[in-house]
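PROTEIN DESIGN WORKSHEET
SECTION A - STRUCTURE
LENGTH: 316
TOKENS:
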């Protein structure tokens, strides 16, 4: 298996680990070279305030290092207007950045989000394509109709309230955080829903990825897998072995079979990311948007070297 065919940048030194599976969600860990000097998104990046509906301020209070805002990050807090961002961005040390093209993800809920007791998510993959297309559009209600269709798809009231899934189904969705293991040194993952490649997420370093892990596995890719898991799973055939050595051999064979199966899925993915279009610069770093026929997202590069990638299917 390789990520070379799905990421439009130099991924020399990256490798894939043993696939892990939890129901309909399969995660393939990515390991590779760390890129220094990037502020992690939870401990380093801070939500300042919502200036007005659709206008969100984020700050990088670190004394050094640049923050790469995770693509499509959003924040939830009780009794406040919840927002998500339509794009990534750079925020230098000690700087604050206002996003005027943020989108509300909780229709008709009053109040502004304050910088306290919030938790963050990443938009479900089913909504990410439209959010990416709407980057730069200043209209806070721009994703409500898509959220309503998303809810209706899963038998929920057709309203522009994303918390119907992210909050009310949170107990179920957060199970993916423990059912899939984040490994030492892991700085990325490929996510499959069923046999379909749904997303490729690569962080600058393992600390960054660990801080965005829950937002990705539970909320970006968890909902599609969660509702797919509604049908009963066919139990795996039990091992018929004699002794511990036989069990080890059977486990190794099953792991190889799973790896071969997922490798076939990746070979058939036929992603066409298209050419990256530069959006923003920070010193040697370049933030670019990728928008092809079936794949969208954003990447950060230093020259040709990959620093960050968040790519996903547009046909979720």
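SECTION B - SEQUENCE
RESIDUE ASSIGNMENT:
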């Amino acid at each position: 298996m390789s990520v070379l065919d799905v990421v439009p940048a130099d991924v020399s030194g990256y490798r894939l680990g043993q696939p892990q599976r939890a129901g309909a969600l399969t995660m393939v860990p990515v390991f590779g070279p760390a890129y220094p000097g990037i502020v992690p998104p939870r401990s380093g990046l801070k939500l300042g305030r919502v200036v007005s509906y659709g206008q969100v301020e984020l700050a990088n209070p670190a004394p050094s290092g640049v923050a790469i805002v995770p693509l499509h990050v959003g924040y939830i807090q009780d009794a406040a207007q919840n927002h998500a961002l339509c794009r990534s961005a750079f925020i230098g040390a000690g700087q604050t950045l206002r996003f005027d093209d943020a989108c509300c993800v909780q229709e008709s809920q009053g109040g502004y989000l304050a910088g306290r007791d919030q938790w963050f998510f990443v938009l479900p993959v089913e909504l990410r394509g439209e959010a990416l297309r709407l980057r730069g559009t200043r209209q806070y209600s721009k994703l409500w109709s898509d959220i309503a269709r998303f809810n209706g798809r899963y038998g929920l009231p057709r309203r522009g309230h994303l918390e119907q899934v992210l909050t009310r189904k949170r107990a179920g969705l957060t199970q993916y955080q423990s059912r899939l293991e984040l490994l030492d040194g892991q700085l990325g993952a490929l996510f499959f829903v069923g046999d379909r490649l749904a997303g490729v997420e690569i962080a600058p370093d393992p600390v960054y990825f660990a801080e965005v892990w829950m937002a990705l596995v539970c909320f970006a890719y968890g909902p599609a897998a969660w509702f797919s898991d509604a049908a009963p799973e066919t139990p795996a055939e039990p091992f018929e072995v004699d002794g511990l050595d036989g069990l080890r051999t059977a486990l190794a064979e099953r792991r190889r079979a799973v790896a071969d199966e997922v490798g076939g899925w990746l070979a058939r993915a036929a992603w066409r990311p298209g050419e990256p279009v530069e959006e923003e610069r920070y010193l040697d770093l370049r933030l670019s948007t990728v928008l092809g026929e079936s794949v969208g997202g954003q990447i950060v590069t230093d020259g040709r070297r990959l620093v960050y990638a968040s790519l996903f299917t547009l046909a979720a």
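SECTION C - NOTES
The CA atoms of residues 9 and 306 lie 6 Å apart.
Residues 110-117 have pLDDT under 50 and may be disordered.
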